[in-house]
Amino acid sequence: MAQVFHRSSNWLARFSIIAVIGVTGLLFSILLNINRIDYVSEVGVAIDQPVPFSHKHHVEAIGIDCRYCHTSVEESAFAGIPPVETCMTCHSLIWTEAPNLEPIRTAWRDEKPLQWNRVHDLPDFVYFRHNIHIAKGIGCTSCHGAINEMPLVWVENALNMEWCLDCHRNPEKHIRPRERVFDVHWTPPADQEAQGLQLVEEYDVRVSQLTDCSVCHL
Amino acid sequence: MTQIVRQSSRVTNRVIVTVVALATVLSAAGCDLRQRMYDQEKYEAHEATTFFKDGLTSRAPIEGTVARGGLRLDTHLYEGKVSGELATTLPPSIEFNRALLERGQQRYNIYCTPCHDRTGSGNGIVVQRGLKQPPSLHQDRLRNAAIGYYFDVITNGFGSMFSYASRIPVNDRWAVAAYIRALQFSQEAAYDELPAEDQRQLQ
Protein backbone atom coordinates (compact mmCIF):
# COMPACT_ATOMS: atom_id res chain seq x y z
CA MET A 1 0.00 0.00 0.00
CA ALA A 2 1.20 3.49 -0.79
CA GLN A 3 2.24 5.62 2.14
CA VAL A 4 -0.43 8.04 3.37
CA PHE A 5 2.04 10.83 3.93
CA HIS A 6 4.68 11.63 1.41
CA ARG A 7 8.22 11.98 2.73
CA SER A 8 8.09 15.70 2.05
CA SER A 9 5.40 16.22 4.67
CA ASN A 10 7.99 15.57 7.42
CA TRP A 11 8.74 19.28 7.45
CA LEU A 12 5.15 19.82 8.43
CA ALA A 13 5.59 17.72 11.57
CA ARG A 14 8.79 19.56 12.51
CA PHE A 15 7.26 22.91 11.72
CA SER A 16 4.21 22.26 13.85
CA ILE A 17 6.39 21.38 16.86
CA ILE A 18 8.33 24.61 16.47
CA ALA A 19 5.14 26.54 15.82
CA VAL A 20 3.47 25.27 18.98
CA ILE A 21 6.52 26.20 21.08
CA GLY A 22 6.72 29.56 19.34
CA VAL A 23 3.07 30.44 19.72
CA THR A 24 2.96 29.36 23.36
CA GLY A 25 6.11 31.39 24.02
CA LEU A 26 4.56 34.37 22.31
CA LEU A 27 1.40 34.07 24.36
CA PHE A 28 3.40 33.86 27.57
CA SER A 29 5.55 36.83 26.72
CA ILE A 30 2.42 38.84 25.98
CA LEU A 31 1.06 37.77 29.33
CA LEU A 32 4.28 38.75 31.09
CA ASN A 33 4.50 42.09 29.37
CA ILE A 34 0.86 42.94 29.37
CA ASN A 35 1.29 45.67 31.96
CA ARG A 36 4.06 47.25 29.94
CA ILE A 37 1.87 47.81 26.89
CA ASP A 38 0.88 51.45 26.84
CA TYR A 39 -2.47 50.69 25.19
CA VAL A 40 -3.37 48.65 28.25
CA SER A 41 -2.36 51.21 30.84
CA GLU A 42 -3.72 54.10 28.74
CA VAL A 43 -0.48 56.05 29.02
CA GLY A 44 -0.68 59.38 27.24
CA VAL A 45 -4.45 59.28 26.73
CA ALA A 46 -5.98 62.61 27.83
CA ILE A 47 -9.15 61.95 29.82
CA ASP A 48 -12.22 64.01 28.98
CA GLN A 49 -13.75 66.00 31.82
CA PRO A 50 -17.14 67.66 32.36
CA VAL A 51 -15.30 71.00 32.52
CA PRO A 52 -12.21 71.34 30.31
CA PHE A 53 -10.00 72.25 33.28
CA SER A 54 -6.50 72.98 32.06
CA HIS A 55 -3.41 72.61 34.25
CA LYS A 56 -1.49 74.24 31.45
CA HIS A 57 -3.57 77.37 31.98
CA HIS A 58 -3.82 77.41 35.73
CA VAL A 59 -0.38 76.06 36.65
CA GLU A 60 1.88 77.26 33.84
CA ALA A 61 0.22 80.51 32.74
CA ILE A 62 -1.25 81.70 36.04
CA GLY A 63 1.23 79.94 38.32
CA ILE A 64 -1.14 78.62 40.99
CA ASP A 65 0.50 76.25 43.48
CA CYS A 66 -0.75 72.63 43.45
CA ARG A 67 -1.80 72.97 47.08
CA TYR A 68 -4.26 75.77 46.34
CA CYS A 69 -6.44 73.00 44.90
CA HIS A 70 -4.93 69.67 46.01
CA THR A 71 -4.96 70.66 49.66
CA SER A 72 -4.39 67.33 51.37
CA VAL A 73 -1.41 66.13 49.35
CA GLU A 74 1.08 66.94 52.14
CA GLU A 75 -0.83 65.35 54.99
CA SER A 76 -2.71 62.36 53.66
CA ALA A 77 -2.68 59.45 51.29
CA PHE A 78 -5.16 61.14 49.02
CA ALA A 79 -4.07 64.28 47.18
CA GLY A 80 -7.55 65.80 47.18
CA ILE A 81 -9.68 66.92 44.26
CA PRO A 82 -10.94 70.49 44.73
CA PRO A 83 -14.63 71.12 45.46
CA VAL A 84 -16.41 73.56 43.14
CA GLU A 85 -16.03 76.15 45.90
CA THR A 86 -12.32 76.32 45.09
CA CYS A 87 -13.04 77.13 41.46
CA MET A 88 -15.59 79.72 42.53
CA THR A 89 -13.05 81.64 44.63
CA CYS A 90 -11.90 83.00 41.27
CA HIS A 91 -14.66 82.16 38.84
CA SER A 92 -17.38 83.92 40.78
CA LEU A 93 -15.40 87.04 39.91
CA ILE A 94 -13.74 86.39 36.55
CA TRP A 95 -14.87 84.58 33.42
CA THR A 96 -18.28 84.50 35.04
CA GLU A 97 -19.98 84.12 31.67
CA ALA A 98 -17.70 81.48 30.10
CA PRO A 99 -19.92 78.72 28.70
CA ASN A 100 -17.21 76.15 29.56
CA LEU A 101 -17.73 76.93 33.22
CA GLU A 102 -21.50 76.44 33.24
CA PRO A 103 -21.31 73.01 34.96
CA ILE A 104 -19.30 74.62 37.79
CA ARG A 105 -21.83 77.40 38.27
CA THR A 106 -24.76 74.99 38.13
CA ALA A 107 -23.16 72.69 40.70
CA TRP A 108 -22.44 75.68 42.96
CA ARG A 109 -25.97 77.05 42.65
CA ASP A 110 -27.68 73.69 43.22
CA GLU A 111 -25.14 72.47 45.81
CA LYS A 112 -24.66 69.33 43.76
CA PRO A 113 -21.30 67.60 43.43
CA LEU A 114 -19.47 67.80 40.13
CA GLN A 115 -18.33 64.44 38.81
CA TRP A 116 -14.72 64.39 37.59
CA ASN A 117 -13.47 61.41 35.65
CA ARG A 118 -10.67 59.62 37.35
CA VAL A 119 -7.32 59.65 35.56
CA HIS A 120 -4.95 57.69 37.82
CA ASP A 121 -6.33 54.61 39.44
CA LEU A 122 -4.29 51.94 41.15
CA PRO A 123 -5.88 48.54 41.73
CA ASP A 124 -7.54 48.35 45.13
CA PHE A 125 -5.00 45.86 46.43
CA VAL A 126 -2.17 48.40 46.17
CA TYR A 127 -1.63 50.94 48.93
CA PHE A 128 -0.20 54.27 47.95
CA ARG A 129 0.37 57.36 50.05
CA HIS A 130 1.17 60.83 48.76
CA ASN A 131 2.36 62.33 52.05
CA ILE A 132 5.41 60.10 52.55
CA HIS A 133 6.62 60.74 49.01
CA ILE A 134 6.24 64.50 49.41
CA ALA A 135 7.97 64.43 52.80
CA LYS A 136 10.93 62.52 51.40
CA GLY A 137 11.54 64.80 48.44
CA ILE A 138 9.78 63.08 45.53
CA GLY A 139 8.26 65.78 43.34
CA CYS A 140 4.89 65.74 41.60
CA THR A 141 6.46 65.78 38.15
CA SER A 142 8.65 62.74 38.91
CA CYS A 143 5.48 60.66 38.88
CA HIS A 144 2.89 62.73 37.02
CA GLY A 145 5.14 64.15 34.31
CA ALA A 146 4.91 67.72 33.05
CA ILE A 147 1.43 68.43 34.39
CA ASN A 148 1.98 72.10 33.62
CA GLU A 149 1.86 71.26 29.93
CA MET A 150 -1.34 69.23 29.99
CA PRO A 151 -4.55 70.90 28.77
CA LEU A 152 -6.30 67.76 30.05
CA VAL A 153 -4.56 65.36 32.41
CA TRP A 154 -3.22 62.08 31.13
CA VAL A 155 -1.24 59.30 32.79
CA GLU A 156 2.45 59.88 32.10
CA ASN A 157 3.88 56.74 33.73
CA ALA A 158 2.08 53.41 33.63
CA LEU A 159 1.37 52.79 37.29
CA ASN A 160 2.61 49.24 37.23
CA MET A 161 4.65 47.50 39.87
CA GLU A 162 7.83 47.61 37.83
CA TRP A 163 7.64 51.40 37.75
CA CYS A 164 7.15 51.75 41.51
CA LEU A 165 10.00 49.34 42.19
CA ASP A 166 12.39 51.06 39.78
CA CYS A 167 12.30 54.07 42.02
CA HIS A 168 12.04 52.21 45.31
CA ARG A 169 15.29 50.42 44.44
CA ASN A 170 17.10 53.60 43.35
CA PRO A 171 15.38 56.64 44.80
CA GLU A 172 18.58 58.68 44.40
CA LYS A 173 17.80 58.99 40.70
CA HIS A 174 14.62 60.96 41.41
CA ILE A 175 14.86 62.52 44.85
CA ARG A 176 15.09 66.33 45.05
CA PRO A 177 15.38 68.94 47.78
CA ARG A 178 12.09 69.20 49.70
CA GLU A 179 11.51 72.82 48.81
CA ARG A 180 11.47 71.91 45.11
CA VAL A 181 8.81 69.18 45.37
CA PHE A 182 6.04 71.41 43.97
CA ASP A 183 8.28 73.05 41.42
CA VAL A 184 7.11 71.90 37.99
CA HIS A 185 10.23 73.27 36.32
CA TRP A 186 12.74 71.27 38.34
CA THR A 187 15.13 69.23 36.22
CA PRO A 188 17.71 66.82 37.62
CA PRO A 189 21.14 68.47 37.94
CA ALA A 190 24.10 66.94 36.09
CA ASP A 191 25.32 65.20 39.25
CA GLN A 192 21.87 63.97 40.31
CA GLU A 193 23.16 60.59 41.52
CA ALA A 194 25.70 62.13 43.87
CA GLN A 195 23.32 64.77 45.17
CA GLY A 196 20.55 62.16 45.33
CA LEU A 197 22.60 59.84 47.52
CA GLN A 198 23.26 62.72 49.87
CA LEU A 199 19.55 63.52 50.11
CA VAL A 200 18.64 59.87 50.60
CA GLU A 201 20.90 59.92 53.63
CA GLU A 202 19.74 63.32 54.87
CA TYR A 203 16.04 62.42 54.61
CA ASP A 204 16.65 59.00 56.09
CA VAL A 205 15.04 57.09 53.21
CA ARG A 206 14.76 53.42 54.20
CA VAL A 207 15.89 52.04 50.85
CA SER A 208 16.54 48.52 52.12
CA GLN A 209 12.88 48.04 53.12
CA LEU A 210 11.22 49.75 50.18
CA THR A 211 10.88 46.63 48.06
CA ASP A 212 9.19 44.54 50.75
CA CYS A 213 5.85 43.31 49.41
CA SER A 214 4.11 44.55 52.54
CA VAL A 215 5.02 48.17 51.78
CA CYS A 216 2.49 48.27 48.96
CA HIS A 217 0.36 45.17 49.55
CA LEU A 218 -0.67 45.41 53.19
CA MET B 1 -18.28 68.87 47.05
CA THR B 2 -16.55 66.67 44.57
CA GLN B 3 -17.02 63.19 43.30
CA ILE B 4 -14.76 60.93 41.38
CA VAL B 5 -16.08 58.47 38.88
CA ARG B 6 -14.09 55.34 38.36
CA GLN B 7 -12.79 54.68 34.91
CA SER B 8 -13.01 51.00 34.48
CA SER B 9 -11.80 51.11 30.90
CA ARG B 10 -8.17 50.62 31.91
CA VAL B 11 -8.93 47.37 33.59
CA THR B 12 -11.26 46.48 30.74
CA ASN B 13 -8.54 47.07 28.16
CA ARG B 14 -6.22 44.92 30.16
CA VAL B 15 -8.80 42.20 30.30
CA ILE B 16 -9.49 42.47 26.58
CA VAL B 17 -5.84 42.04 25.68
CA THR B 18 -5.48 39.23 28.16
CA VAL B 19 -8.47 37.46 26.75
CA VAL B 20 -7.30 37.82 23.17
CA ALA B 21 -3.87 36.48 24.04
CA LEU B 22 -5.02 33.66 26.22
CA ALA B 23 -8.51 32.90 25.03
CA THR B 24 -7.83 29.23 25.46
CA VAL B 25 -6.05 29.52 28.80
CA LEU B 26 -8.09 31.94 30.86
CA SER B 27 -11.68 31.22 31.54
CA ALA B 28 -14.19 34.01 31.85
CA ALA B 29 -14.50 33.24 35.56
CA GLY B 30 -10.80 33.98 36.08
CA CYS B 31 -11.22 37.41 34.49
CA ASP B 32 -14.10 38.23 36.71
CA LEU B 33 -12.14 37.36 39.84
CA ARG B 34 -9.26 39.52 38.71
CA GLN B 35 -11.54 42.42 37.96
CA ARG B 36 -13.03 42.11 41.41
CA MET B 37 -9.56 42.28 43.00
CA TYR B 38 -8.87 45.46 41.05
CA ASP B 39 -12.14 47.05 41.99
CA GLN B 40 -13.03 45.78 45.42
CA GLU B 41 -16.24 46.45 47.26
CA LYS B 42 -14.92 49.39 49.19
CA TYR B 43 -15.04 53.10 48.59
CA GLU B 44 -11.97 55.19 47.94
CA ALA B 45 -11.83 58.88 48.86
CA HIS B 46 -14.55 60.88 47.08
CA GLU B 47 -15.75 57.89 45.09
CA ALA B 48 -19.32 58.28 43.80
CA THR B 49 -22.04 56.04 45.23
CA THR B 50 -25.68 55.24 44.65
CA PHE B 51 -26.13 54.28 48.29
CA PHE B 52 -26.70 57.80 49.60
CA LYS B 53 -29.23 60.09 47.98
CA ASP B 54 -26.75 62.88 47.36
CA GLY B 55 -24.29 60.44 45.76
CA LEU B 56 -21.43 61.35 48.13
CA THR B 57 -19.34 58.81 50.03
CA SER B 58 -17.64 61.52 52.09
CA ARG B 59 -20.26 62.27 54.72
CA ALA B 60 -20.52 65.42 56.80
CA PRO B 61 -20.94 65.01 60.57
CA ILE B 62 -24.55 65.00 61.71
CA GLU B 63 -25.67 68.53 62.51
CA GLY B 64 -25.36 69.51 66.13
CA THR B 65 -22.75 66.87 66.94
CA VAL B 66 -19.18 67.51 68.05
CA ALA B 67 -16.41 65.05 67.28
CA ARG B 68 -14.16 63.93 70.12
CA GLY B 69 -11.47 66.59 70.53
CA GLY B 70 -13.43 68.92 68.28
CA LEU B 71 -14.86 71.18 70.95
CA ARG B 72 -13.90 74.75 70.11
CA LEU B 73 -14.51 76.83 73.22
CA ASP B 74 -11.27 78.81 73.00
CA THR B 75 -12.58 81.82 71.05
CA HIS B 76 -9.15 83.44 70.90
CA LEU B 77 -7.68 80.48 69.06
CA TYR B 78 -10.66 79.49 66.92
CA GLU B 79 -12.39 82.80 66.22
CA GLY B 80 -9.67 85.38 66.75
CA LYS B 81 -11.78 87.12 69.38
CA VAL B 82 -11.26 87.85 73.08
CA SER B 83 -14.49 88.63 74.93
CA GLY B 84 -16.17 89.64 71.71
CA GLU B 85 -13.39 91.98 70.53
CA LEU B 86 -10.89 91.17 67.78
CA ALA B 87 -7.74 89.79 69.38
CA THR B 88 -4.66 92.00 69.29
CA THR B 89 -2.22 89.23 70.18
CA LEU B 90 -1.50 85.69 69.07
CA PRO B 91 -3.27 83.02 71.14
CA PRO B 92 -1.09 81.69 73.98
CA SER B 93 -0.84 78.26 72.36
CA ILE B 94 0.90 79.76 69.31
CA GLU B 95 4.50 80.63 69.80
CA PHE B 96 5.93 83.54 67.87
CA ASN B 97 9.20 82.51 66.27
CA ARG B 98 11.01 82.23 62.99
CA ALA B 99 9.39 78.89 62.15
CA LEU B 100 5.93 80.43 62.49
CA LEU B 101 6.81 83.26 60.11
CA GLU B 102 8.34 80.87 57.61
CA ARG B 103 5.26 78.66 57.70
CA GLY B 104 3.11 81.76 57.32
CA GLN B 105 5.11 82.94 54.35
CA GLN B 106 4.79 79.57 52.65
CA ARG B 107 1.02 79.40 53.19
CA TYR B 108 0.55 83.05 52.19
CA ASN B 109 2.42 82.37 48.96
CA ILE B 110 0.23 79.38 48.18
CA TYR B 111 -3.19 80.76 49.03
CA CYS B 112 -3.02 84.55 48.89
CA THR B 113 -0.46 85.56 46.23
CA PRO B 114 -2.66 84.76 43.20
CA CYS B 115 -4.63 87.91 44.13
CA HIS B 116 -2.71 89.86 46.79
CA ASP B 117 0.74 89.17 45.25
CA ARG B 118 3.89 88.48 47.23
CA THR B 119 4.25 91.95 48.65
CA GLY B 120 0.58 92.36 49.59
CA SER B 121 -0.05 95.32 47.31
CA GLY B 122 -3.01 93.56 45.68
CA ASN B 123 -1.65 93.15 42.19
CA GLY B 124 -1.58 89.39 41.86
CA ILE B 125 -1.56 87.61 38.53
CA VAL B 126 -5.28 86.88 38.63
CA VAL B 127 -5.95 90.57 39.24
CA GLN B 128 -3.90 91.30 36.15
CA ARG B 129 -6.29 88.98 34.31
CA GLY B 130 -9.29 90.98 35.37
CA LEU B 131 -10.27 90.02 38.92
CA LYS B 132 -11.44 92.84 41.20
CA GLN B 133 -8.38 94.41 42.82
CA PRO B 134 -8.17 93.77 46.58
CA PRO B 135 -7.02 96.66 48.77
CA SER B 136 -3.29 96.95 49.50
CA LEU B 137 -2.41 95.39 52.85
CA HIS B 138 -0.15 98.38 53.47
CA GLN B 139 -2.80 101.07 53.74
CA ASP B 140 -3.14 102.65 57.19
CA ARG B 141 -6.54 101.16 57.97
CA LEU B 142 -5.21 97.63 57.55
CA ARG B 143 -1.85 98.36 59.14
CA ASN B 144 -3.66 99.41 62.29
CA ALA B 145 -6.10 96.50 62.25
CA ALA B 146 -5.83 93.94 65.04
CA ILE B 147 -4.08 90.67 64.16
CA GLY B 148 -7.35 88.90 64.94
CA TYR B 149 -8.87 90.76 61.98
CA TYR B 150 -6.69 88.84 59.53
CA PHE B 151 -7.59 85.60 61.21
CA ASP B 152 -11.24 86.58 60.84
CA VAL B 153 -10.94 87.49 57.14
CA ILE B 154 -9.23 84.18 56.33
CA THR B 155 -11.82 82.26 58.35
CA ASN B 156 -15.00 83.98 57.19
CA GLY B 157 -14.00 85.71 53.98
CA PHE B 158 -14.61 89.39 53.31
CA GLY B 159 -16.97 90.89 50.74
CA SER B 160 -16.34 89.10 47.48
CA MET B 161 -13.35 87.21 48.89
CA PHE B 162 -14.21 83.65 49.85
CA SER B 163 -13.44 81.97 53.16
CA TYR B 164 -10.25 79.92 53.20
CA ALA B 165 -11.20 78.03 56.35
CA SER B 166 -11.67 74.71 54.58
CA ARG B 167 -8.20 74.89 53.10
CA ILE B 168 -6.12 76.53 55.84
CA PRO B 169 -6.18 74.87 59.27
CA VAL B 170 -6.45 77.07 62.37
CA ASN B 171 -2.75 77.15 63.28
CA ASP B 172 -1.76 78.01 59.74
CA ARG B 173 -4.26 80.87 59.71
CA TRP B 174 -2.45 82.43 62.66
CA ALA B 175 0.86 81.86 60.89
CA VAL B 176 -0.45 83.73 57.83
CA ALA B 177 -1.78 86.54 60.02
CA ALA B 178 1.62 86.87 61.73
CA TYR B 179 3.35 86.88 58.36
CA ILE B 180 1.09 89.67 57.07
CA ARG B 181 2.16 91.72 60.10
CA ALA B 182 5.78 91.05 59.22
CA LEU B 183 5.11 92.08 55.60
CA GLN B 184 3.57 95.32 56.81
CA PHE B 185 6.55 96.08 59.04
CA SER B 186 8.92 95.32 56.19
CA GLN B 187 7.25 97.91 53.97
CA GLU B 188 6.98 100.42 56.74
CA ALA B 189 10.44 100.20 58.21
CA ALA B 190 12.18 103.55 58.11
CA TYR B 191 15.73 103.59 56.89
CA ASP B 192 17.29 104.40 60.28
CA GLU B 193 15.34 101.60 61.98
CA LEU B 194 16.97 98.98 59.78
CA PRO B 195 19.82 96.89 61.18
CA ALA B 196 23.23 98.23 60.17
CA GLU B 197 23.80 95.31 57.83
CA ASP B 198 20.61 95.96 55.82
CA GLN B 199 21.44 99.65 55.67
CA ARG B 200 24.75 98.75 54.11
CA GLN B 201 23.04 96.51 51.57
CA LEU B 202 20.74 99.32 50.52
CA GLN B 203 23.62 101.67 49.86
Helix/strand layout:
The complex is a heterodimer of chains A (218) and B (203).
Chain A: H1 10-33, H2 38-41, H3 55-61, H4 66-69, H5 84-91, H6 102-110, E1 114-117, H7 130-135, H8 140-144, H9 161-169, H10 192-202, H11 213-216
Chain B: E1 2-5, H1 9-21, H2 28-38, H3 75-79, E2 81-82, E3 85-86, H4 98-111, H5 113-116, H6 125-128, H7 140-143, H8 147-156, H9 170-188, H10 196-202
Antiparallel strand pairs in B: 2-3
Helix pairs in contact in B: 1-2, 4-9, 8-9
TL;DR of this structure?
Chain A is mostly helical. Chain A has helices at 10-33, 38-41, 55-61, 66-69, 84-91, 102-110, 130-135, 140-144, 161-169, 192-202, 213-216; one strand spanning 114-117. Chain A has 11 helices and 1 strand.
Give an overview of the whole structure.
Chain A is mainly alpha-helical and 218 residues long. Chain A has 3 domains: 8-36; 55-81 and 119-216, no CATH class; 82-115, no CATH class. Chain A is 42% helix and 2% strand. Chain A has helices spanning 10-33, 38-41, 55-61, 66-69, 84-91, 102-110, 130-135, 140-144, 161-169, 192-202, 213-216; one strand spanning 114-117. In chain A, helix 5 (84-91) crosses helix 6 (102-110). By secondary structure, chain B is mainly alpha-helical. Chain B has a domain at 75-202: Cytochrome c-like domain (Cytochrome Bc1 Complex, Chain D, domain 2, Orthogonal Bundle), CATH 1.10.760.10. Helices cover 45% and strands 4% of the residues of chain B. The longest helix of chain B is centred in the C-terminal third of the chain and has 19 residues, at 170-188. Chain B is elongated. The A-B interface holds A 27, 30-31, 34-35, 37, 39-42, 47, 62-65, 67-68, 71, 77-78, 81-86, 88-90, 92-94, 112-119, 121, 123-125 and B 1-7, 9-11, 13-14, 17-18, 21-22, 25, 37-40, 42, 44-46, 48, 54-56, 109-111, 114, 125-126, 129-132, 160-162, 166-167.
